[in-house]
Write a structure and sequence with these properties.
Blueprint lengths: L1 E8 L4 E5 L4 E11 L3 E4 H8 L5 H6 L3 E4 L5 H12 L9 E5 L10 H9 L5 E5 L5 H16 L3 E9 L9 H4 L4 E12 L6 E6 L7 E4 L5 E4 L1 H23 L8 E4 L4 H11 L10 H4 L6 H11 L7 E9 L3 E11 L4 E8 L6
Parallel strand pairs: 6-7, 6-8, 13-14
Antiparallel strand pairs: 1-2, 1-10, 1-16, 2-3, 3-9, 4-5, 8-9, 10-15, 11-12, 14-15, 15-16
Helix pairs in contact: 3-4, 7-8
Amino acid sequence: MNEFDMKITWHRVANIIFGKEGIILRVIGTGSYLPKKIVKNAELEDKLGLEKGWIEQRTGIKERHFAINETPLDLALKAAEEALKDYDKSPQIVVAHSSTIEQGFPSMASMVSKGLGLNPVLAYDVVSGCTGFLHTLISSVSVMKNLKLDSMLIIAAEVLSSHIDFTDRDTAILFGDGAGALLVERVPSDEVILASDFGTDVKKAGDLIIDNLTGNVIKMNGREIFRFAVRTLGKSILKVLKAGNISIEELDYFIPHQSNARILASVNRELKIPEEKIISYIDSYGNTASASIPIAIDKAAKEGVLKDGNKVLLSGYGAGLSWSTLLIEWRTGEEEASCILESVFQGYSE
């Protein structure tokens, strides 16, 4: 179990406050990119010999985007470029996450920086599966604080279609490709910070892998992943809501990792979060792994879904097996939109 202090306040997009000394990260840009090719369920059902409607009934997915002659780096560049479009400086840190990057080194973060003409002090990658975006955020902010750097670009990009075994219906029906990015700047603060924690159950690390030794395809123990996700997310969410001192009724929106609608429905049997409060694009994008949450944040922000005073929950799980949960409050004023992260990365181990 890891513990440290964290709180978030959003301006325009968000302010993130870390540590008792108070580090605020103002999120000043968001971006996302989905490849142009759309693969509908009928195509996969025909290929896999499945009945019409089988995929949507079991996953909630109707279609997903597949990259054609595009790499994770290509997707990352486009999402990052969108996040940087109104920014006239180079971020001092560039951190990227991808479980599907095609080369060992240099890092994808370095290649994004080169491609966009950036000149960061640090450029490095993190690998943590579907929870990778949230883990990248929390770990890289610690680096920013300790090194007293002032700006950071965070990117998650996945081309999972290149790692699908189309003879395995358990994985072939789930995954899609996409990328999301956030640009943040540091603002000094001396505010009181809340304590939070997160966790990983490494005993289950082999249940979800991309196996480079046997075909470079996704291998998943679907039954165990389902059980892990249902058991983990429900408890994690309840812990975070308790720490944030709000009820389900007071929660305005829930943005989960976009993995499988059946998992979400099973988690929600206990939580009973109203459907209208759940922000999900899984029907259109499928499971884009670490990119799913930043894509959903970008879409919801730009569609004007989030309103003044909304309390929003973010939660994910993935390879490791790991999990993370954040609670934020979205506020708007005459000149800026804002939100406060009350509790983050709530974890536990049984």
